[in-house]
Write a structure and sequence with these properties.
13 helices; 21 strands; alpha+beta; elongated; about 400 residues
Length: about 400
Amino acid sequence: MNRKTFAYIGGGAAGYFAAINSAERNSDAQHILFEATHRPMTKIKISGGGRCNVTHHCFDIHELVKSYPRGSKELLGAFARFQPKDTIEWFEKRGVKLKVESDGRMFPVTNKSDTIIECLNNEVTRLGVEIRKGCKVKEIKKQEDHFIITFQNEEKLRVDKVLLATGSFPFSYELAASLGHNIIAPVPSLFTFNCSHFLLEEMMGTSFKKVSLQLEITKEGKKKKWQQEGPLLITHWGLSGPAVLKLSAFAARELHEAHYKAHLRVNWLGAWTEQSVIEELSQIKIQDAKKSILNTPLFDLSKRFWQQVSKFAIEEKSERTWADLSKKDVLALARVLTGSELQVDGKGVFKEEFVSAGGIDLKEVDFKRMESKVCPGLFFAGEILDVDGITGGFNFQNAWTTAWIVAQNMG
């Protein structure tokens, strides 16, 4: 008669992880996970190109939080309790080994997201967590020390504690708002840039190991700037790759307000400065005086892109040699290579991740417990919070960490 019931709403990474860890701590309670669709864990399934980027190989929590445009302050304390090394250990104890790639991303050694899904399914079965699929919540009401959940089929359920781990679905925000919470309006994060420029024409598929980007948005006469470095890819609509995605995340809200119009300065050579490029080109003029400019790609650039730069910077159309290059030409080349001026005129879609900036106002959540400050007994985990990370496993780590903290406190 006194058995407690805990409800976990949302069948994604955060919902499953919270239910599993909570059931392990509170074996005498009833644990029920509700998923609106008939296919739980779909984001796990498709993430990382079907491999599931479980977390990121970063064990310094002060460095780790730098990858979260929103929520970094709150996550610092949370990561002190459960961070990537704990995630790795958790899965390895359950037979799932993770591997680290050169960029720090971590995947199961099987390279299959199904490995993670199978592990979580095995755990809910072992611990007796009840999974109800195709079960849509219509309303949640707080009544004294418990909650009444009403489903779309009008069925009602009395529960003692509720976790909302429903991601960025609009209705999840409505549920939280109905229980007294303020919602920071969600806007897209992690997206590509729509750009058109001569340098990008017919360059689709051209990649760069490390570029330096500076994004600038002017609002009410004031300029705001963001900088990022990393790999970049030219696409048929503009620019993509980790450097662009990081910029999109940190400037997500301002880009939304600016209708995704901004100024972008690109240093295609990463750490090279205009002066260092001038000095290098001046040396090339002497060393390779008789060689064709168009047929001598430099700085590890592809021949196609080098020729495009040459045509744009110095209108190079003939077979001029390096000896023919004037000081003015050298300066023009250096400026294009280290400071191309592009205009962002819209956003594309980064299909591997669906992340938004916005959600539950963090001031209304006790991050030591992941419990609502305005509605005791209500917990939050994952993307429903106004927390988001850049690409690379950081958003999953937010889900694992916040869900784990929920599990320590639900009982």
